[in-house]
Amino acid sequence: MSSIGSSSTIAAAMSRTSFAERFRAVAGVPPLTYLTRWRMLLAQRALRDGDAGVGSLAFTLGYASGGAFSTAFKRETGESPLNYRRRISHNLANR
């Protein structure tokens, strides 16, 4: 059996609480915090480097709607995805 299969088996045998406690001990943050931060880093990269719309980006990152993604993005970064894109584009253009 591959190491991926073994890890999946071990993870599946853990309770949610045990998994969350183990994850936090290793990563330093709860699983959902880690996931949200990771999604926001991917979103920032996509907004900086690409031209995908907020709705399609939201779907790609696993959000149910553009509104849900925009709310989460603003909560994490302090600005909307479109304002972030405009600001970053302006900053890059003025280098």
Structure description:
- The protein is mainly alpha-helical and 95 residues long.
- Helix content is 77%, strand content 0%.
- It contains six helices and no strands.
- The chain has helices at residues 3-12, 16-27, 31-49, 54-60, 66-77, 81-93.
- The longest helix is centred in the middle third of the chain and has 19 residues, at 31-49.
Q: What does this entry show, briefly?
A:
The chain is mainly alpha-helical. The chain has helices at residues 3-12, 16-27, 31-49, 54-60, 66-77, 81-93.
Give the SSE layout:
Elements: H1 3-12, H2 16-27, H3 31-49, H4 54-60, H5 66-77, H6 81-93
Labels describing this entry:
6 helices; 95 residues; single chain; mainly alpha
Helix fraction?
over 70%
Shape, principal axes of CA atoms? elongated
| Global structural class | mainly alpha
Total beta-strand segments = 0
Write the H/E string, N to C.
HHHHHH
Distance between the termini: 52 Å
